[in-house]
Specification:
The complex is a heterodimer of chains A (248) and B (288). Chain A is built from 9 helices and 10 strands. Chain A is an alpha/beta fold and 248 residues long. Chain A has a single domain, classed as P-loop containing nucleotide triphosphate hydrolases (Rossmann fold), CATH 3.40.50. Helices cover 73% and strands 2% of the residues of chain B. In chain B, helix 1 (4-35) runs antiparallel to helix 8 (192-218), helix 5 (146-168) packs antiparallel against helix 8 (192-218) and helix 9 runs parallel beside helix 11 (261-275). The model of chain B has no long low-confidence stretch (mean pLDDT 87). Classes of the chains: A alpha/beta (248), B mainly alpha (288). Chain A binds chain B through residues 55-57, 59, 76-78, 81-82, 86-87, 89, 93-98, 102, 105-113, 116-117, 159, 163, and chain B through 96, 170-171, 173-174, 176-177, 180-181, 183-192.
Chain lengths: 248, 288
């Protein structure tokens, strides 16, 4: 196991079948502690399925996933969260009939958060600080259903930051349908949490400019497998990647 | 001709019973909203609540301490519900089961048959009546049955507590979060199976509370929950105007005939469904 410890995430020959359809096929990859890794690929290549497998929404058909050396692919989603994996969804999964502040407090209920009654003031303060961090503090008493799509994405991202410990943050299309101002806030939040708290990020996105600004390394997924890894410029010259995007 | 005082009296009696039926309806919708399944055995938890209350008042607490029986019955049924959820219903959420709703229907209908027959085996088919909770009293100038008045107050207290727990506590936040987004709550680190267990316990304990509160009015017998369940489902269709149900039953009894008391609610539901198929306060949803 020690060989995996410097790698926050190691995926070994991961496969996910849905009946006769193979969405992820013998995919292997590693992610270093403190990295911001981009996951790119054409539509239907298996990017979101990969995020669902790492976060535990789907169970893998075969293969293994290790977080800091611990095998996690058989754990339930909430246990994976308590181990430090948090995620966002392309369509934000916020609690629409709760206020913005209440949404922030929900992860404080998780098993890993200790004595929440003693920590209430602390958690409340942290939630308010994070809302300020993503510039939603002025809406903290509004119901989430009154927020725009972009604001709900910000809320979803900020809610993840309250989880302790936070090791690996999986983001599925965080920039999709978001206005440039909110996009800027999201990018700043990612950079700062990576720099200040050493949070590792895996970002699935079609937004190449944002990926270029955030990620030194990207993995290209095609037909459920990882076909190339490297900087955006490096993978752009790989024939298999060109073929995947243009079609052959 | 019925004088206005008598009419008002029936109106109040109907209103009171409508509020109490709401306990059943809230229990059913609470479980449905979180677990996305209908508990067809809800009436049997009502029945167990009424038997427990009868047993406690007659054999353990005495008639004066009847009010202690209500929280005790609720607590016992809460834990019974938690264990039933754990052993019988949880498997439908573990693994990738298809047709979860059908599984839930089979399990809860089986529970309904089992508990009804268990009651017959343990207590016989007879009807039992616990001693009255209170003597007749007045709401303003209107005389009202003491048992109904007590049941009304008890229901309002329980609904108030329920509201506080759901709105203001950590557990309440988790319950609301699960109802609003089952995937979102899991990825926020919450054990949704544990939340289901609490939700099922709370839902059936509300039914038990209704059974215990209504025991002196509708008596204690193996099938007393069947009618209560029907009322609960009727109120779900009618929506927040569920109080209408009690009033319609009460007024139908006095103006037409008490023999068809349970029919009036169905007629009301059918009329509402004919006029507004989405329910009185339901909204049309875009399918595609």
């Amino acid at each position: 196991m020690t060989e995996y410890v410097d790698k926050i995430l190691k995926i070994e020959s991961l496969t996910k079948n849905f009946g006769g359809l193979t969405a992820v096929h013998r995919l292997s990859m590693t992610v270093e502690q403190g990295e911001i890794r981009g996951i790119i690929g054409p539509n239907g290549s298996g990017k979101t399925t990969l995020i669902n497998l790492i976060s535990g929404i789907y169970k893998a058909t075969s293969g293994a996933i290790y977080l800091s050396g611990e095998r996690i692919d058989r754990l339930k989603p909430n246990i994976r969260t308590s181990r430090g994996i948090i995620r966002t969804f392309q369509i934000p999964k916020v609690f629409l009939n709760m206020t913005v502040l209440e949404n922030m407090l929900v992860p404080a209920l998780s098993d890993s958060q200790g004595d929440r009654h003693k920590r209430y003031k602390e958690v409340l303060q942290e939630a308010q600080d994070l809302l300020e961090f993503v510039r939603l503090d002025h809406m903290k008493h509004e119901l989430a259903k009154t927020l725009s799509g972009g604001q709900n994405m910000l809320l979803q991202i900020a809610r993840g930051f309250i989880v302790k410990p936070l090791k690996l943050y999986l983001m599925d299309e965080p920039f999709a349908g978001v206005n440039p101002q909110i996009k800027g806030v999201i990018m700043e939040a990612i950079k700062e949490m990576n720099r200040e708290k050493a949070v590792t990020f895996i970002i699935v996105s079609h937004e190449m400019p944002s990926i270029r600004r955030l990620c030194r390394k990207v993995s290209v997924i095609h037909q459920g497998g990882c076909i190339a890894e490297g900087s955006l410029e490096e993978v752009a010259n790989v024939p298999a990647v060109i073929e995947a995007y243009i079609g052959g | 001709m019925i004088d206005s005082l008598l009419l008002s009296q029936y109106l109040v009696a109907g209103l009171v019973i409508g509020i109490i039926y709401a306990l059943m309806a809230i229990g059913i919708t609470f479980i449905y909203s979180i677990m996305k399944m209908i508990n067809w055995s809800m009436g049997e938890f009502y029945m167990m609540g009424s038997y427990l209350q009868y047993f406690l008042v007659v054999y353990l607490l005495g008639a004066e301490l009847w009010f202690l029986g209500i929280p005790i019955s609720m607590a016992v049924i809460f834990f019974v519900g938690m264990y039933i959820q754990k052993f019988l219903l949880r498997p439908m959420f573990v693994g990738e089961m298809e047709r979860r709703d059908e599984y839930a229907t089979v399990v809860t209908v089986s529970m309904m048959v089992f508990f009804r027959n268990l009651a017959v085996v343990l207590a016989g088919p007879n009807q039992f009546a616990p001693p009255d909770y209170a003597s007749p009293t007045y709401i303003g100038p209107l005389p009202v049955s003491g048992n109904r008045f007590v049941a009304l107050i008890g229901t309002l207290v329980i609904l108030g507590l329920f509201y506080l727990i759901v709105k203001k506590t950590w557990v309440g936040r988790a319950l609301r979060g699960s109802a609003q987004n089952r995937i979102g709550i899991q990825t926020a680190g919450i054990n949704v199976l544990r939340v289901d267990q609490i939700a099922f316990g709370v839902g059936v304990s509300l039914a038990a509370a209704a059974g215990a509160l209504l025991a002196p009015i509708f008596l204690v017998w193996p099938e007393n929950g069947a009618v209560a369940t029907m009322k609960g489902f009727e109120i779900i269709v009618i929506g927040v105007a569920g109080l209408l149900l009690g009033i319609v039953e009460s007024m139908g009894s006095v103006l037409i005939s008490p023999s068809f008391k349970d029919v009036y609610g169905f007629v009301l539901v059918l009329a509402i469904l004919a006029i507004r198929p989405t329910g009185l306060f339901g909204e049309r949803q875009r399918v595609a």
